[in-house]
Design a protein that fits this description.
heterodimer; A: alpha/beta; Rossmann fold; eight-stranded mixed β-sheet; 11 helices; globular; B: mainly alpha
Chain lengths: ~280, ~55
Amino acid sequence: MYPANISVSKIDTGKWGTISVYFVMPQSSDPVCNVIFYIHGAGWVFGSFHTHEKLVRELAARTNSLVVFPEYTRSPEAKYPVAIEQCYYVLSHIREIIEKIFSNINYRTLTVAGDSVGGNMAIAMIFMAKKRNGPKVQKLLLYYPVTNACFDTPSYRKFASNYYLYREGMKWFWRQYTNCESDRNQITASPLRADLKCLKDFPETMIINGQADVLRSEGEAFGEKLRCAGVAVTALRVQGIIHDFVMLNALDKTNACRTAMDASTEWINRNDQCVEKSKK
Amino acid sequence: MKRCVPLEAAAEDVSNQSSVPPMIFQLPPKQGRKVLEEAQNSIVYICIRQTFL
């Protein structure tokens, strides 16, 4: 795995409880000028820092970024919106949290990122930050995000079983995360249902989807909707690969994972554009 | 397995391994978490590409 210095703190998120937050600092002599707030996937039920360690170490090392990684309370123990409220608490206090732990970081760009349901919650962070006057996010990076509680899309039909992530599995994950249809209908749960007005002013976004993934249709549809709302979107479909391909250690050496990591880290490293944009 | 789209070899292996019941979502959450945590114990090496001028 890529070298990094890793530390962990307990953060009290008020009424949402106390969670662990990991900090992944690259081992570079250059000063860190980016922060990536990373929300992990694995169905709201599974996943942890351990399961995503190789992915976030690579992001930190290849973008010279401090990765801030909340270990939110998973479902079914916690139901919507506990996990997104916990994550948002950390995001909205990110500057003071970082300053308390690291004395020498003066970052220029804040990227919110996530994979699968982590991508779903990363999108929720943008809605919440917009609504609550939260921190300005320059970039949104989404690996095969969940964007809609709907199981009848072309990719759901084509890859319903035998391609690692099953349609029945996604139905089960949604049942663990949400209590009712009203929860699923919120734009912080099903962001594809947001109207264009709500998507306007989203940060520039990269969405990477795998070809053989039940979530591909909704991920691509979200990218198209963002573009309709006037957001700068970079969208990729990587062939010959299944869900979770940037997370699973077993798939790290696939052409798909290497291509996605090359593209996403290069995209984060394009900082000039967002510095210029923030000056306007 | 005959597939509607061809997969990279490692993805084919993961798909085949994960298609044997019980599926991870059929396990109690604590047990399913353990399965994924253990799967991610495998060591990952970094490929260092060298350029010869």
